[in-house]
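B., you asked whether I could sanity-check this one before it goes into the benchmark set. Here's the sequence:
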Amino acid sequence: MALRYPRIDALFSDRPVTAPNRRPTPQPAPAPGLVVDTEQRIVTVEGRPVTMPFLEFELLAHLVGNPLRVHSRRQLMETVWGRLDTGDSRTVATHIARIRRKLGPGHREAIATVRQIGYKYDPKLARTA
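And here's what the prediction gave me:
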């Protein structure tokens, strides 16, 4: 009988690590009407293409790709900008404000501010028609 090490096996495979007899937690899909295509780098809202500069697209794609997870401003600076946070939290806030404006009234609410921490994407907060 061969020994099995699920965590080590997962490092060398494409499948996620799960506990035995336990299903992985399903991740919520983006809100209906919002499409963030990371392959073609296209954002559409209710079928309408939305133009976003590089960092706005990267920030939105990161938030939508990790729904319901709270991201601190420091984490976003390090992950999206690729540099350490210099204490200027207005950079992240300004980009979030621009993204919300471009998403429009139905989808801007899906990017929630978590006071004193940062931001999260929650597709249930979007008001779709």
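One thing to flag: The chain has a mean pLDDT of 82. Otherwise nothing jumped out at me.
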